[in-house]
Amino acid sequence: MKVEVIDKSLELNIYGFGGVALNKDYSGTAFKLSGKMWEYIKSNDIKNKGKNIWVYENADKVFTGVELEDEINSNVSALERKKIHLESYAYYKHIGPYSLIRETGERMRNELVKEGYKVILPYIEIYGHWTNDDTKLETELIMCLE
Which sequence spans correspond to the domains of the chain? Predict the structure, then answer.
């Protein structure tokens, strides 16, 4: 596994919905929030970049959102806005089934800790465009470093 450490700031400005993962059901909560977000995006014909972004935060908070093509001309009144700014982070592109993302993230975190980095929240997953071939699914994993 080749994890890239980046000391250049990352800015994300995403729109969607957030909530608390009851009983630490992070993925279940994120799936529900993501479904709600995509339903709103599609029904209001909001132009977006098409990538589903999941953000895991302190206190079991989860946020799912999408970057917009044009924030000014979009009907985003019902969506929450989340601005993310990271100064230093680790990056890894997971290629393969979504069911292996958790394991890949744990390996990523372990490698970073072994190298002396302190990993903190937020943790971000950016899901690439869907394909029926799960061996070709791409998910970007981003871990904030202190």
Answer: 4-145
Q: Going residue by residue through the chain (146 aa), what tens digit of pLDDT does each one get? A: 899 999 999 999 999 999 999 999 999 999 999 999 999 999 999 999 989 999 999 999 999 999 999 876 667 888 999 999 999 999 999 999 999 999 999 999 999 999 999 999 999 999 998 889 999 999 999 999 99
Fold of the domain spanning 4-145: Multidrug-efflux Transporter 1 Regulator Bmrr; Chain A (3.20.80)
Output the furthest CA–CA distance in the chain (Å, rounded): 46
CA atoms within 13 A on the CB side of 101: 20
